[in-house]
Amino acid sequence: MGVYRSVVRPLLFALPPEAAHRLAHGLLGLPLPWERIGRVPDDPRLRVTLCGIELRNPIGLAAGFDKSCRRLDALGRLGFGYVVGGTVTRHPRAGNPKPRVARSPRQASMVNAMGLPNPGADAVARTLATGARTAPRFVSIADQDVPDALATHALLEPHADAIELNASCPNVSWGRDRDNEAHLDRLLRELGARRTKPLLVKLPPFRTRVEREVVTALARIARDAGADGLTCSNTRPVRDPRLATGAGGLSGRALFADTPRIVEEIRRATERALPVNACGGIATAADALACIEAGATTVQVFTAMVYRGPRVVAEIASGLADTLRLRRTEMGALVGPA
Ligand SMILES: Cc1cc2nc3c(=O)[nH]c(=O)nc-3n(C[C@H](O)[C@H](O)[C@H](O)COP(=O)(O)O)c2cc1C
Questions:
Q1: Which atom belonging to ligand 1 lies closest to the Cα atom of 62?
Q2: Which is the closest atom of ligand 1 to the Cα of 256?
Q3: Ligand 1 mean position to 303 CA, how many Å?
Q4: Fewer beta carbons below 10 Å: N end or C end of the chain?
Q5: pLDDT at position 179, please?
Q6: How many whole angstroms from 233 Cα to the centroid of ligand 1?
Q7: What are residue 166's DSSP bridge partners?
Q8: How many other C-beta atoms can be found within 10 angstroms of the C-beta atom of residue 199?
Q9: Which domain holds residue 178?
């Protein structure tokens, strides 16, 4: 067992989840040799192109880990192929009442009802303008109304390599209740006319037939309205009495069983026109490989960083590189055409 699992994690888990996350965020602000801590192999076999952006490996940091985008430089130096900051909204948000995150260690999972707390697009644009770019950086954005979303996009796109539109947060009312299809269509068409960088859409997960129809319809709308890629998926809504709101989004291992199937179904529903980033419970090279074989171009991780620590990127990257070596191939040949 590594130092993270034997020493650091027990200390972090002695704190409430949000306090532990603040501490981890603080540590990432220290001038430590993050490249040496991450020790991610720089193997040309792992290189892959996502929406025209060249990545050194297909492992991305999922949105929500660095909501203020203040630690994207250190996270890039840890060895991620790309990092997604945010989600950022036009105006600062305090988020939902606390407690709003709970761990379920036996399932290596979490439930959160953060409600998109963030410092707002003006502050994040200032942070990004001065931060070093150590890996391609994407910024996740979400707003309730179209004019706000357009303003957030205009403020942040100049500082990002791509924008990921969060169309799937279960913890704000507009992420789940509104007429999602018409709203997404209008938003993407308006953004499409203005954007100069790739635009990706993050979709919710699905299990039932009805949910599948709703989400595949959103995926087709994204494709037809000109999105460049999809991230599948966000957290799954669940009830949880430990949270002040009584409900939140499930993340981590408990999600993984569905992730490759969702990737495969979304790729099929969109006739493989768009690259897909798999997200949901990915923690090992075998998980990543299953998603890539289901049609994903990259994978994104969040909860595995909490349970397995920063070396998780190196573990996934090394395992993928070993597989590629054995198969005498490279990532570019393994991922589906977009
Ligand atoms: C505490 C927490 C906060 C999150 N915040 C965001 C967010 O702001 N925007 C977003 O698109 N996803 C957010 N997510 C969802 C993750 O990006 C990811 O889609 C989800 O956790 C599934 O991946 P995982 O199982 O690897 O964690 C959050 C997840 C957690 C656990």
A1: 17
A2: 25
A3: 8
A4: N
A5: 58
A6: 9
A7: 202
A8: 24
A9: 3-334
| Per-residue model confidence as pLDDT tens digits over 221-256 | 999 999 999 999 999 999 999 999 999 999 999 999
Say which CATH number the domain at 170 has.
3.20.20.70
SS3 content of the chain, % helix, strand, coil (to 5): 45, 20, 40
- Of 73, 83, 86, the closest CA to residue 133 belongs to 73
Give how many domains the chain has, as a whole number: 1
**What is residue 131's predicted lDDT score, i.e. its pLDDT?**
86
Cα-flanking dihedrals φ and ψ of residue 295, to 5°? 120, 0
**Hey, is 149 helix, strand or coil?**
helix
* CB neighbourhood size of 188 (10 A): 22
Nearest-angstrom CA–CA distance, 37 and 317: 14
pLDDT score of 337: 59
Strand 199-203 to 229-232 pairing:
parallel
pLDDT < 70: residue spans in the chain: 1, 171-179, 336-338
**Which of 104, 234, 308 to mutate to test ligand 1, by most ligand atoms within 8 A of the CB atom?**
234
Question: What would the DSSP string read from start to end of 2-53?
Answer: -HIIIIIHHHHHTS-HHHHHHHHHHHHTS---HHHHH-----GGG-EEETTE
